[in-house]
Design a protein that fits this description.
By secondary structure, the chain is α/β, with parallel strands linked by helices. The protein contains 13 helices and 12 strands. The radius of gyration is 21 Å and the shape is globular. Bound molecules: NADP nicotinamide-adenine-dinucleotide phosphate. NADP nicotinamide-adenine-dinucleotide phosphate (NAP) binds next to strand 1 and helix 13.
Length: 323
């Protein structure tokens, strides 16, 4: 809502008007206000304005009547739920569906894409990888007919912060605690440190951009738990720092992917990416090595990916309702 307000003039220039007619979360339940919530009260977390007697996503969609739904529930690596059901229902109800949730891509990308097409709506997900930096839209909108042969990158910020901390002398446990305090790592940090988050992200890139039906558990995965501070420090001193590197490459008709700590040379662009920043390199038939680096992303960059998707979905239409 903050970013929609901040970009009001730019949205207006594109003929886009908006109001928020629905808000939902696990604790809040399903709130709808078809005339639109008062934005400033929404920003102050005042949600008493909405209808609260709704019992589920279907009733909520009927009451809120959105033209577009922003879906940002927690990731379930196992099955992508409940996000997949929420997106299915939104598309069936005639709304565009925009998500930041990678689970929807790795478990249901093809199905949701087909459903969106069938309903004449868009299913868009720029914020799922690299916090809103243009990755999916780059291939979709500005590099038509390019063949992607390989991907390499650092896609998990928590482990990159931990490795940077360890290079500066902190031990693994202290740094995990620090990333938890920063709000980067979860209470159970295994999602990041065991490479799951990176595996989900490389799978999402492969499924969408390389059009291969890779599954998360087919990614060869090693996290950073086995690295000792001494090794990380001496690797940096020797000019070959450790990074948690994601890779995918074509292997005949299949795509193979892996996540594991690798030592990279100082002339490698991956060596320059420290802290919460991330990087991806694409090897294509036209651009042998196209690199995108994102320094110090924040919540606003993730929100921006969703805003950019929103504009892509609705541009050309004049008055819209957002749930
Ligand atoms: N944070 C980032 O910078 C970032 C960047 C890129 C992508 N993402 C993705 O964006 C999504 C949200 O991230 P986050 O950091 O905000 O996650 P989070 O802290 O886990 O918050 C998720 C939200 O989803 C709600 N939720 C969880 N389960 C739900 C359910 N069953 N039904 C309805 N609502 C439910 C929660 O509601 P309650 O609060 O009421 O429990 C909470 O508001 C995740 O999929 C994440 O991977 C986040």
């Amino acid at each position: 809502v903050q970013l929609l307000q901040k970009k009001s003039a730019e949205l207006h220039e594109r003929g886009i008007a908006w109001r928020i007619t629905g808000v939902a979360s696990r604790r809040l339940g399903w709130l709808a206000q078809p005339e639109g919530f008062v934005q400033d009260r929404l920003l102050g977390q005042e949600l008493s304005q909405g209808r609260t007697s709704l019992s589920g996503v279907r009733e909520w969609l009927t009451a809120a009547r959105p033209d577009a739904v922003f879906e940002a529930t927690s990731l379930s690596v196992k099955d992508g739920q409940p996000a997949i059901d929420y997106i299915r229902e939104s598309l069936e109800a005639g709304a565009h569906a925009i998500t930041a949730n990678k689970g929807t891509i790795v478990h249901a990308y093809e199905e949701l894409e087909t459903l969106a097409e069938k309903n004449g709506r868009r299913f868009l997900f720029e914020s799922t990888v690299m916090d809103g930096a243009p990755i999916f839209s780059l291939f979709r909108q500005t590099m038509p007919a390019v063949r992607l042969n390989g991907i390499r990158g650092i896609l998990n910020s928590t482990t990159n912060v931990i490795l940077s901390d360890m290079e500066h002398g902190m031990n693994f446990e202290e740094s995990v605690k620090r990333t938890q305090e920063m709000g980067l790592a979860e209470t159970d940090p295994s999602h990041d440190v065991d490479g799951w988050d990176a595996a989900v992200k490389i799978t999402a890139l492969v499924r969408v951009l390389m059009k291969a039906p890779l599954k998360v558990d087919e990614v060869e995965r090693t996290g950073i738990r086995g690295l000792r501070s001494e090794d990380v420090q001496s690797a940096r001193r020797d000019g070959k720092p450790y990074k948690l590197v994601c890779r995918a490459e074509r292997d005949g008709s299949r795509v193979k992917a892996r996540v594991r700590p690798e030592q990279v040379s100082l002339s490698d662009p991956l060596a320059l990416v420290t802290g919460s920043s991330s990087i991806v390199q694409f090897e294509t038939d036209i651009f042998p090595n196209l690199v995108i680096t994102e320094n110090d992303p924040g919540l606003e960059t993730t929100a921006y990916g969703m805003l950019a998707d929103f504009i892509t979905a609705v541009v050309g239409r004049s008055s819209l309702v957002v749930g």
